[in-house]
Amino acid sequence: MDQTVGVDQTDPNPATQAPEAVPMTEQQSADLARAQEAGWTNQVAFDYDAFQSMGGNNDNWHGAGQVYEWRDEYGDVAPRVPELEAILFGGEFQMRRGEHLANLELQVTIEGAMKPKPFREFQEAGLHPVVMENINLAHYARPTPIQCYVIPAVNMGLDVVGVSQTGSGKTAAYLIPIVSKLMGKARRVQGPRPDINDPGSMVRAEPLVVIVVPTRELAMQIFDEARRMCYRSMLRPCVAYGGLPMRITREELGKGCDVLIATPGRLGDLMDKPHILTMSRVKYTVIDEADEMLHSDWEDELRKIMSGGDTNDDADHTFLMFSATFPKDLRSMAKDYMRDDFVRIRIGRAGSTHKNITQNVIEVDRDRKRDAIYDLLFSMEPGRTFIFCNSKITVDLLDDFLYNRGLPTTSIHSDRNQREREDAMRAFRTGKTPILIATGVSARGWDIMAVRHVINYDLPSTMYGGITEYVHRIGRTGRIGHRGLATSFYDPEKDEGLAQDLVNVLVECDCDVPDFLSHLTPEDTKNINFDDNSEDEGDGGASLDDTNGHHDAEDTGANGFTNGINGDHHGADASAAPAAEEGFTRDAGEQGFTPDAAGAYSAAW
Ligand SMILES: Nc1ncnc2c1ncn2[C@@H]1O[C@H](COP(=O)(O)OP(=O)(O)OP(=O)(O)O)[C@@H](O)[C@H]1O
């Protein structure tokens, strides 16, 4: 790829300094001038040869990121480390909540024999004081709705399936209570550490928590949240993902590991090396972006992680699964692995998005897309922009095209080596290259501050995940109370299959339906029939997903969790319902969670 235009000479990274600048054509100079006049930043040139040849320098690998290192002489209160604090809680890493939290969907559906008692403030949750301090450092003033329910559920020792919209704080929902519970007994349960008198010594990793995620970038991001929540504690987080040199993984694990975040492939490899890792002491297994894990040919690895190898099979092993969507396969996996009394917590309709994202759909023929996106990027104020394509080749071609027209782009997909992926992510996160072009899967779950605009250059057809994928993609903007914009190019020749689902989501979020799709607007816009892949739940699990959109009150509100639980050998039995419902209603009222007219529950921030 020719990316030598506009080299940023101040960049210290050898891989992002072009070898030799090729003279620009007149057209290129004019394009570059236009982009800069419009306010786009300087371009950063990526020299992929340099990327290929660079070895592993520990400082540059995200997986070797600094964590708080506990020392035995600390006693009960560990000192603060201002430099590390600045890295973990300041600047580029830390998103702050936005002004528009009230627009997030807050209807809550809880199912299970035992209902967690929700709380409204972190102070009420009985958290370890060090975790409370870390929450304050992270500026989490109040828990998000999913956190209000998941934290008490974990405190009760329940297995949990948590479904809530993109950018609603699911990661902290499980990390906070797990870390807090373990901190109380860290001195007793902490894994082995190297001998400080023998500088080269390494230990076998014996994690207490394993968090499995589908992509490398997501693993790094969750590692960052774990570094924050484990700050000033005895618990040492580590991350292991494909592409990170095994030497570095080995070194980091060898320093001791209590919380391990991993992609399934790398975790499977490590499980085959019992001198490096044992899963025999794991107390919490978390599967994040669980629906994507099921789609992605990882079934064997997942089964091995859940109950294979030397995985701790004891009853004290808690399983948690999270996603913004909750398809049928995932439900059956939950039933296979979770305890009978697992609790299902859903905020809003599974697979829904929210009103903080303005969604536009524009009809664009395939051969006009490149010009259309170029014009679109100039039609608004420059800002961090995520562009999604369906194939790697389209990502490469579009990156090339926009870069050569003077725009500060970078790109990511699964054929890039890890060095390239980490650098692209860092460049986008820091705003150095504010336009990132990606395939959908590679950007799953990314949480990046101030993403103003998501563009679906290609809409995800059914082959590429359909409406579920669409919801995940646009969820890269409008996170945690911020507003965002999503623009999708609709190709009339290819996207017809998605049209009805797309219109339903637009209507649900009060977004404009374009004229060319208006004939698909449902007659009863308050009662849209979402196809949520739930029809085969013969044993009644269908109540996990409402088939009536917002009107899940009819399914779940009247008695809390009606059809679906009876006779389900893993779920609560019918007799558990009244008691649980009663408790939940009372608790909910006490805590300020009030049933609406139909009996479903709403949580206010
Ligand atoms: N209580 C809180 N108050 C303010 N910000 C929070 C709170 N909890 C989490 N956050 C921030 O919200 C952002 C989104 O959180 P997170 O990535 O966990 O969302 P998510 O629900 O997992 O999204 P997705 O489904 O897209 O992966 C993060 O930047 C996180 O630091």
Automatic annotation (TrEMBL):
A motif (Q motif) lies at residues 120-148. Residues 1-16 have a biased composition (Polar residues). SMART domains: DEXDc, HELICc. Residues 1-22, 522-605 are annotated as: Disordered. Belongs to the DEAD box helicase family. Keywords: ATP-binding, Helicase, Hydrolase, Nucleotide-binding. This is RNA helicase. PROSITE patterns: DEAD_ATP_HELICASE, HELICASE_ATP_BIND_1, HELICASE_CTER, Q_MOTIF. Pfam families: DEAD (PF00270), Helicase_C (PF00271). The keyword Hydrolase applies. It comes from Neohortaea acidophila. GO terms for molecular function: ATP binding; hydrolase activity; nucleic acid binding; RNA helicase activity. Residues 372-521 form the Helicase C-terminal domain. Residues 151-344 form the Helicase ATP-binding domain. It catalyses: ATP + H2O = ADP + phosphate + H(+). Its EC number is 3.6.4.13. InterPro entries: DEAD/DEAH_box_helicase_dom (IPR011545), Helicase_ATP-bd (IPR014001), Helicase_C-like (IPR001650), P-loop_NTPase (IPR027417), RNA-helicase_DEAD-box_CS (IPR000629), RNA_helicase_DEAD_Q_motif (IPR014014). Residues 120-148 form the DEAD-box RNA helicase Q domain.
